[in-house]
């Protein structure tokens, strides 16, 4: 089996960012493949494990049910040496990051420390533990690397031109992974993921804001590709994208359709509004405070390499995804109203 080692023991995976959207889905995927899954979480006075709480039994001690959690932070090198030495994973998936583009303009130094140097800390800890020939490493790269892209669609060899501190930090992370792969012959690779959504998307992201808002009005999968990349004979970087593009306007319209509302548009620029065509009520307004100092150009990923070499392809259509997110938020709102 692909998920077993030569000693017939389960493969061991270590996931940073396991409490996030991608990390939670990846944990499920690996558990279903028979892995022993370990995750790294930050020490916090608030509960941050909501997306994965059902995967362990005791929320106070994180006693293993299907996963084992460890305290750590991308700003601390020592914790990774300790955790990697103890867990001795076969695969490490580095999904943790300060991933909000707008926030990166306000917290640029912190973003660099976590997203850029944090990646270096993890990959260098592998070498410090003398596991360079044992551990396979996946780095979650991003379409923000392309930024002011000079070709459409973007593929693995498209030049990078990031337009935010987040994109710049991720570019360092991308190249340090390539450098360690070439300098030390380590199995490490980058997955350049374009925008991907789910019902577990953070509430500060625009898509989740839309679906939550639609749910309120109504009331009153990429992870497989990550795993496939670490099963190849040699490490390579891949673009992970549907190859299709959708605007925020498209997302808004599709989300409202789920609850039987057709949105029409009036005005232009910052004064443009989305109107319920049946009632005439304004449902959507633009808030300029969320504009970024610099924006990316037209991003559209070319997934040819991933399709041909990995046999990977997207499983969910745009309309199916929007429907899943809206329905999930409607159910969440109903539960909140019952409390």
From TrEMBL:
Limits of the NAD(P)-binding domain: 14-325
Cofactor: NADP(+)
EC numbers for this chain: 4.2.1.47
Signal sequence, renumbered to the chain: none
GO molecular function: GDP-mannose 4,6-dehydratase activity
Class of the enzyme per the UniProt entry, highest EC level: lyase
Functional pathway: Nucleotide-sugar biosynthesis; GDP-L-fucose biosynthesis via de novo pathway; GDP-L-fucose from GDP-alpha-D-mannose: step 1/2
Pfam families: GDP_Man_Dehyd
Reaction catalyzed: GDP-alpha-D-mannose = GDP-4-dehydro-alpha-D-rhamnose + H2O
GO biological process: 'de novo' GDP-L-fucose biosynthetic process
Top-level division of the source organism's lineage: Eukaryota
Keywords (A to Z) from UniProt: Lyase, NADP
InterPro entries hit by this protein: GDP_Man_deHydtase, NAD(P)-bd_dom, NAD(P)-bd_dom_sf
Family: Belongs to the NAD(P)-dependent epimerase/dehydratase family. GDP-mannose 4,6-dehydratase subfamily.
Alphabetical list of HAMAP family matching this protein: GDP_Man_dehydratase (MF_00955)
Protein known as: GDP-mannose 4,6 dehydratase
Organism: Trichoplax adhaerens (Trichoplax reptans)
Species classification: Eukaryota, Metazoa, Placozoa, Uniplacotomia, Trichoplacea
């Amino acid at each position: 089996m692909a998920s077993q080692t030569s000693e017939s023991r389960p493969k061991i995976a270590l996931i940073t960012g396991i409490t996030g959207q991608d990390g939670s889905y990846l944990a499920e995927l690996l558990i279903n493949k028979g892995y022993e899954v370990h995750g790294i979480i930050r020490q916090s006075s608030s509960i941050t494990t909501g997306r994965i709480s059902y995967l362990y039994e005791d929320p106070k001690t994180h006693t293993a049910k299907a996963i084992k959690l460890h305290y750590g932070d991308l700003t601390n090198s020592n914790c990774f040496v300790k955790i990697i030495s103890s867990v001795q994973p076969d695969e490490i998936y580095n999904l943790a990051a300060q991933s909000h583009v707008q926030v990166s303009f306000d917290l640029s130094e912190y973003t660099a420390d976590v997203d850029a140097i944090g990646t270096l800390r993890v990959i260098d800890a592998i070498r410090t533990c003398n596991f360079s020939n044992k551990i396979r490493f996946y780095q979650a790269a991003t379409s923000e690397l392309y930024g002011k892209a000079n070709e459409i669609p973007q593929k693995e060899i498209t030049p990078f031109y990031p337009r935010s501190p987040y994109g710049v930090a991720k570019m360092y992370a991308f190249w340090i992974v390539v450098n360690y792969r070439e300098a030390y012959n380590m199995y490490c690779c980058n997955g350049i993921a374009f925008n991907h959504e789910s019902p577990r998307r953070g509430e500060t992201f625009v898509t989740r804001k839309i679906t939550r808002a639609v749910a309120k009005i109504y009331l009153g999968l990429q992870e497989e590709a990550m795993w496939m990349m670490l099963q190849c004979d040699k490490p390579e970087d891949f673009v992970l994208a549907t190859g299709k593009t959708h605007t925020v306007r498209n997302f808004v319209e599709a989300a409202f359709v789920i609850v039987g509302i057709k949105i029409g548009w009036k005005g232009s620029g910052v004064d443009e509004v989305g109107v319920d065509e049946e009632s005439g009520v304004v449902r959507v307004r633009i808030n300029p405070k969320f504009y970024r100092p610099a924006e990316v150009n037209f991003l559209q990923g070319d997934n040819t390499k991933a399709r041909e070499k990995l046999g990977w392809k997207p499983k969910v259509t745009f309309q199916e995804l929007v429907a899943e997110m809206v329905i999930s938020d409607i159910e969440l709102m109903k539960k909140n109203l019952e409390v």
